[in-house]
Amino acid sequence: MKLRGIELRRVSMPLVAPFRTSFGTQTERDVLLLRAVTDDAEGWGECVALTDPLYSPEYVDSQQDVLRRFLLPRLASPEGAAALGRSGAAAVAGALHAYKGHRMAKAAVEMAILDAELRALGRSFGRELGAVADRVPSGVSVGIHDSIPALLSAVEGYLDEGYARIKLKIEPGWDVAPVAAVRERFGGDVLLQVDANTAYTLRDARHLAKLDAFDLLLIEQPLEEEDVLGHAALARQLATPICLDESVVSAQTAAAAITLGACQIINIKPGRVGGYLEARKIHDLAAAHGVAVWCGGMVETGLGRAANIALAALPGFTLPGDVSASGRFYRTDITEPIVLVDGHVEVPTGPGLGVTPIPELLDRVTTSVEWIPF
Question: Mandelate racemase/muconate lactonizing enzyme C-terminal domain location, by residue (predicted)?
Fold first, then answer.
């Protein structure tokens, strides 16, 4: 494969409503998109970094900078070009390994090149990754609200839309009471889980144990990302399964967490772990150890959402993921909208991602474009 260059495109996407978590409130997404141009096809990648380094050390300006100054020049070098020529997208991780961290930028590069490669071959993301389903159950992430009545109204709306699972964002002061209210209002048949985004410490174990009364699928990332031992200790004190998100940044860290007993479930976010090929390795590792996985979301556009749906169709993804319809976050997506049908979303079957940006919609939200020739 001969890569001619990569375009870095920033877009600003307003959300349909503010999305509040324990680390902040989003009202729009400043998204970095990559367009890889080869001799045979074009492919798209999406960097999931947020505007500020709150979810992870990466933030969108830093990812654009590291791409421009280090990662793309490395791929454009004779050694990088030779590796891409031999192995395509599979060579990206190895070629960029010398540069520490910046997994979200690396994932976006790999995604764009893999999309171009698969479009040229006429193969879909799902087929390449090993999908076994043609549709996957869709869960929805519900942010922190100003009041319990507002939360109940939001949850009712999502259940009426048909979402298969509800995830409530929690933080100290907004945990037991809202969970209890949702359970009381909607009953025990609703698949329900919570996500703390690192908001607690091990000193909160007794308080978090109060959530055991509500038959939750899991509690996601209650402690700081580096506190794997703390999660192992917490897992021994809770009946609710522990799910790790921010703590798992590679197959290697996933293996350590599993070995230490720090989690029974893993949320796999391709951007967080360096790409879809690494995400597949984590899926395979978890399956070998009997650990359930599901696909998390980062408020992606239709591009990243389509790739996540393809990943979620692998056999080890036994829990509904945050692969909601486009309308959950955006009134107008930059691709044809992904829609919810009977609580499921369809796995794209077209070449590559199976979706492409609609030019006029993409231009409407574009704030900058930069071309990096190879």
Answer: 148-241
3-122+356-373: in CATH 3.40.1280.10: no
Domain with CATH 3.30.390.10 in the chain: 3-122+356-373
- Categorize the per-residue pLDDT at 195 as very low, low, confident or very high, splitting at 50, 70 and 90: very high
Amino acid at the residue 81:
A
Q: Cβ of 190: how many Cβ atoms within 10 Å? A: 16
Would you state the CATH architecture of domain 127-346?
Alpha-Beta Barrel (3.20)
Catalytic annotation, residues:
169, 269
CA-based nearest residue to 138, from 329, 367, 362: 329
Is residue 1 scored above 90 in pLDDT? no
Bridge partners of 43, per DSSP, are 36
Mean pLDDT for the stretch of residues 292-306: 97
Q: Tell me the whole-structure pTM to 2 decimals.
A: 0.96
Distances (CA, A) of 8 to 35, 68, 95, 232, 256: 7, 9, 20, 40, 35
Residues of the chain with CATH 3.20.20.120: 127-346
Pairing of strands 344-346, 292-295: unpaired
